[in-house]
Amino acid sequence: MLFNSVTFLVLFLPVSLLAYYLLGHFQMTAAKFWLAALSFFFYGWWNPDFLFLLVGSILFNYSCGYLIQVFQERNKASAFILALGISANLGLLFYYKYLFALLNWFHEHHFYQGSSTGSIILPLGISFFTFTQIGFLIDIQGGNVREKGFLEYVLFVTFFPHLIAGPILHHREIMPQFAKKETYSLNWDNIGIGISIFIIGLAKKVLVADQLSPIANDIFKHTVEKHTLEAWAGVLAYSLQLYFDFAGYSEMALGLARMFNVKFPANFDSPYKSKSIIDFWQRWHISLTRYLTLYLYNPVSLWIMRRRMAKGLALLKAEETTLEGFLIMLAVPTMYTMILAGVWHGAGLQFLIYGLLHGFYICVNHAWRMFGPKASKTPVSRFHSWFDGGWKWGLTYLSVVISQIFFRAKNTTEAWQLIQCMIGRGTGDSVGGQEGVIESILDYFGAPISYWNYTDSLITLAVGFVFILVLPNVLQLFQKEGASLTNIKSAPAFFSFQWRPNILWGFLLAGLALVTVLMVTGNSEFLYFRF
Amino acid sequence: MRSFLITLTLVFAAGLVFVWVWGLDNRLSYLSRDYALLTAKNRLIDGYSRPGLVIFGDSAVMDGIQPEKLGPGVINCAMMGNTPIESYFLIRRLMKAPVHPKAILLSYNTYHLVHSDFYWENTVKFGLISGSEADEVFGNILRLKDKELISGSGLWNLEQRVYSFLLSRGFPSYYVSSLYADAPGVRKKENEEALGVIAQTKGQYYFPLQDGSKALNADTKVKAFTVSPVIDYYFRKTLDLLKTENIPVYFYVMPINETSVPHLDPGVFKAYQDYLLELAQEDNQFHILSKFRTVYPWKLFSDYAHLNEKGTLRFNREFAKILNKAGVPGGPYGAVVH
User: How far off is chain A from B1, nearest CA to CA, in Å?
Assistant: First the structure.
């Protein structure tokens, strides 16, 4: 079921909330059961067959966790169970996400003879619930898990606001919330805050992301024939669509959880305002970055450091770092982590390139910080500060946009064709295929292309950018109320204002909700559902 | 927080109710022309007072059969994409009119016995059938497991149940895109014109006229003739209803463009004929007027299926003769109308 479907909005959500608080008023366990049942129902709505997969995965992982604890004293046995658990989870992920794609690739490249291997339906949210549970197993082995109740565990994995597309939760921040009695008592403050955040997220998805989708889809459908300006507009449209789609989803999840008295960690913090790629990854899909850092980057990085320490080699200190030390201690774990992050999004060379690009960007960013010119400590003029911020922002955003072409394209050929179009080497015949950007813009004003409405698209893009760069995000808007578990203090927005539980905000959000609900079609999936 | 939540709830609820009620009351102002055609045909049915021949079918019939060329008691109730499902409910409505017709003529091409492409988009959305009728059809769709009208996926088909229920009750989210599809006032003007045309022609309505078309008929897409279970159910239900009312039913296949003929699957047409013959054998009041499909030159068509002015002129002359020859009650047909 989609958060932006009429069924969810007019039936599922009101009924769920009402019954949850009614049951919670009498008995906490009943409310827990109801919430778990709701979450399974929510998951099974799309394809009931995959409910068995979800239930199986939960039972298997909980049992593994239990056994790891039983054998806690016997290191080898618990390590074996952990390895078994992780292998089984990764095996499941590999089967659904990569096996058929890999076999098809072998078949296409004649490594494998015989008929084509076909395809398989990817169960919704499999990457999310698998990763969540792997993290849980690793932490149990490390002795970092306190909450052990089965119902709390089921809710931690299945709680419907995060089940399909995150945020990727950490048991330590969620399971204790499900164990508390207050979670099941009606709290009007949380209802009000939750509804408000949800409305804003829904509006981002329905009123902005879905409106940008046709422009982006058109470009990515026919990557060869595009003119330079068209290609740029399409790629920027996709960039904004992805932003508003994911921001919308993350905020809806945040708001929904809050309506049930549960606080989620922040997952999205105006990433397109970033002035470096490191900053970008601290703002984009924050829960994934955290997961990757905790369970992929840190173990490898620590292992390398320990080995170097054992050999008496220097560690990462700015003034002592050599190129060799930088490459081994920072570039290797970064590239390894980002390649896996890329591949996590799906099978295909394009995702590998996406990961490689981001790994490379992060390494360059780190190298610049370590080996590049140091920032002056003397005060600089306003113009200098703006200019400095401007080029950093521009370079960061451009790098992100280039990587997003690979993220969206069906394959690397399509991505490459589109990049060719963007640098004026496309075969677009409308305004002249071999021209540069300036010529294209001039030609555009002189001879608009009949089949593609530039003006509308450019206005939509401009409005999107204004929203992103000028207005406060949800975390800033609800700073006083604490929109998320994580206390993020990003720089204030250009127009800074705060949400207040008063009549004016009631009117504003009711109007926004009305317009959004009226525009809901219910057939527009979230982009992150693909993963 | 209390004042915020009360304001939010009240303003949202009041706004939604206002848009919902306004939307239901002013459909002619913003819905597409198909809604106006439907409204006009409903008016024809509700005011039916001169017994004769009433025609039901798809858009080829709506465009091609001119009641004023056939006789005073003839009305054309065919509509875009109509299948026996829609015809059944229109006929049920007709049975409540001041007088009953002397005969009913049905006409659907092969495609519209296999596919029901406008059921959700026009029939339910435009209120051709009421909410309770939509519920009835949906029940039958589920019972007969008709994959043509239901995706078949999802838990207990709940998504589509809710969709059917809300769409048939005019839930505004499904209609809002029509509000800004054209500049304000454009649709209202077009729709009022369409109402006037239908009232004048007694149901005939041209598609945009062209001096010929070589486009292929939708029937060429049909590669296997398997009647949709729900369409079959309502076809038989229609025949049963008319048998109870003692009204004879005739079936005619509209002419096809000569350019489409080489692309038609002969097996499909044979199966289509067999299906109709089987119905005729089961019901002695059901008569098939066309033993074969008439082929017209491409010059007589405006598009893939619809006749142009020259085409309708020729067709109605020939059709009147066919009706007279078969002794269809309500004739003679083709005489000058007074």
Answer: 5
Active site residues of A: 345
Q: Would an 8 Å CB–CB cutoff place B6 in contact with chain A?
A: yes
Interchain proximity A509–B8, CB inside 8 Å: yes
The one-letter amino acid code at A101 reads A
Q: B18 at the A interface (CB within 8 A)? A: no
Encode chain B (338 residues) as per-residue pLDDT tens digits: 889 999 999 999 999 999 999 999 988 988 888 999 999 999 999 988 888 999 999 999 999 999 999 988 899 999 998 999 999 999 999 999 889 999 999 999 999 999 888 888 889 999 889 999 999 999 999 899 888 888 656 677 788 888 889 989 988 888 888 887 777 788 889 999 999 999 889 999 888 888 889 999 888 988 889 999 999 999 999 999 999 999 999 999 999 999 999 998 989 988 999 999 999 999 999 999 977 788 999 999 999 989 999 999 999 999 999 999 999 998 788 865 44
For A513, name the nearest residue in chain B, comparing CA atoms only. B12
Tell me, yes or no, if the pTM score tops 0.90.
Answer: no
Please report the ipTM that was assigned to this predicted complex. Answer: 0.83
Q: Annotate A407-466 with DSSP letters as a single string.
A: HHSSSHHHHHHHHHHHTT-S---SS-TT--HHHHHHHHHHS--TTS-HHHHHHHHHHHHH
Amino acid found at A428: G
What is residue A1's DSSP assignment? Answer: -
DSSP state, residue A208: I
Report yes or no: B180 at the A interface, CB cutoff 8 Å: no
Phi, psi dihedral angles at B321 (to 5 degrees): -65, -40
User: Cis omega (within 30 of 0) on the bond before A167?
Assistant: yes
For residue A228, the number of C-alpha atoms closer than 13 Å in the C-beta half-sphere is 17
How many other CB atoms sit within 10 Å of the CB of residue A389? 12
Look up residue A266 and give its DSSP letter: P
- C-alpha to C-alpha distance for A282 and A295, rounded to whole angstroms: 16
Contact B7 A6 (CB under 8 A): no
- Residues of chain A whose C-beta is under 8 A from some C-beta in B? 1, 5-7, 10-11, 41, 44-48, 188-189, 191-192, 195, 500-503, 505-507, 509-511, 513-514, 517-522
The half-sphere exposure of B283 on its side-chain side, counting CA atoms within 13 A, is 24
Residue with tokens 């005969």: B103
Query: CB-based contacts of A9: which residues, under 8 Å, 6+ apart?
Result: A517, A520
